[in-house]
Amino acid sequence: MDRFLRIALAKGRIALQAVELFENIGINCSPVREGTRRLIIRDPGSMVEFILVKPKDVAKYVELGAVDMGVVGKDMLLEQQPDLYEVLDLGIGKCRMVVAGPEKPRFFLNRAVKVVATKYPVTARNYFREKRESIQVVNLDGSVELAPLVGLSNVIVDLVETGRTLEENGLVILDEICPISARLVVNKVSLKMENERINKVLKALRQALRKAV
Question: Which of 11-15, 46-50, 59-63, 71-75 is predicted least confidently?
Answer without folding.
Answer: 11-15
